[in-house]
Amino acid sequence: MSQDINILSPCGMLGYGFPEESFRRGMAQRVHAVVVDAGSTDGGPHKLGAGVSIVSRRAYKKDLEIILGACLPRKVPVIIGSAGGSGAKPHVEWTLDIIEEILRERGMSAKIAVIWADFAQERVLEALRQGKIVPMSPNIPLLTEQAIRETASIVGQMGHEPVLKALESGSEIIVCGRAYDPSPFAAVGLFHGKDPGLSYHLGKILECGALCAEPATTKDCILGTISDGHFTVRALSDCRACTPISVAAHTFYEKDHPYLLHGPGFMLDLESCTFTEPEPGVVRVSGSRFIPRDKTFIKLEGARLAAYRTFVIAGVRDPILLRKLEEVENAVIAQTKQYYPEIDERDYEIRFRNYGMNAVLGEREFEPFRGHEVGVLFEVVAKTQELASSICATLRSTFLHYGYEGRKSTAGNLAFPFAPSDIEFGPVYEFSVYHLMECRADDFPIEYRQGGVRNGEAG
Amino acid sequence: MAKLGDIARVLRSKNSGPFELTLDCLFDNREYYERLKRSNAITKEAIARLYRIREDQVHQLVFYDQALGFKVTIAREVSSGSAGDRDVYGAQQHAPLMDLEVALEEG
Questions:
Q1: Which of A57, A265, A344, A403 is 20 to 30 A from A74, alpha carbon to alpha carbon?
Q2: Assembly ipTM
Q3: What Rg, from alpha-carbon coordinates, does chain B have?
Q4: A299 has which bridge partners?
Q5: B67: chain A residues, CB-CB within 8 Å
């Protein structure tokens, strides 16, 4: 029997924070790696398109300081998955810059592996021409040359292979560009010769932090242990615990299927898994099956700039207006369009969101409106910022003073919380690439560098 | 008759990638789970009606006994965060499913 491998996941998203006490409790074990996911597409296409993070630099650094400060002196490798939120070049560089700052501030040094996940347009165009690209689900449009050319930033989700290579090279910090979320975790188990099905299933659970415990949270640590034939997970804070149901249920989370998971080059079949509790708060999982595929397809993600937005938030309290709110809004849109006959109507879109009425579900709302107050958000998205702001200003003033039938409040229809009322949002992005592409051996290049204070250099 | 939202322990929605929305319904009670599964109330047709979509826009509907739950994955009409989206994380789209009335036979 080979030794048990412990993997500590501090939180579900680097920069979300975690209790230091939980982390220290985890580090009191013999930990073989600390792995933390930093990425997601859940927050929409903006991060990838604009090259920015969803967490603040301050929070990202705060989390990394605790992790690096504990791991580097103990020679525990640190792996960051999907660095900076989207794992494209600007996100990876932002992460490296923060790591460098921490190392220098603390007079430390580390061997860093950087695994890039960017894909040049030419590379994707070539794969498209060779018929090596397919959509992820039936409602995604087929990829076109035009869509690729309009997408400045394209990343691919790496599997465990480059991370495994970086571990084999003795890296102390591994900064991954965009990765399949469980892969950086799975690489640790595989590096230590563990079963790929167990390694990946554990990775799938750990990548969300303590979300598999009760009460669930992404902002706390979780410890995973891979043995021969099973793995276990346990929470590291007294205020939460893992149960067989909570861990089994987590297998569901944010995937399209409850027990079949598609990763780069394999499928994970969790249908026959068993979840038991050998001791209180420790959940043992076995039966996770790794089924390799003939060809490795990686998931490509790309975001393009689609339009610019200006929006307004206002309150409506007048009961007469509330009774005919949608009718008035449609009339306001019509009058605004009439005011700009010289502008092509295809160059802009106007939308109303009536919070308190049906803003969240739209057409799917089944409850009749019963409120006495509604928050109205209206937006104009247009080809340019100037166009969006001009039309939004006309829309706002038209709505404010619109004289609908039966109106008694002739001084104004909207309560603005702010002055100015119109907010320039800037560019709006959209996912223009979300497709599978056949992977090549030279995708995801690894670059090694020495970070922090070098020999002979003052700290 | 019971409302699904009253008998489920977890009933949630979330993106499964930017182009799909996934609904999870989990129980903490094997009896309720088994009775719901046997009731055949959860079908692609019922989901399509609830979410005002076509049946072919219901991409998955699967029960998973180990977790005492089922999962439904549907197509998003607008991809996450694009102009016109109402719920970037897809985190508040579970309410229609909560309101679904199901007839549970006696255990």
A1: A57
A2: 0.95
A3: 14
A4: A436
A5: 245, 248-249, 251-252, 258
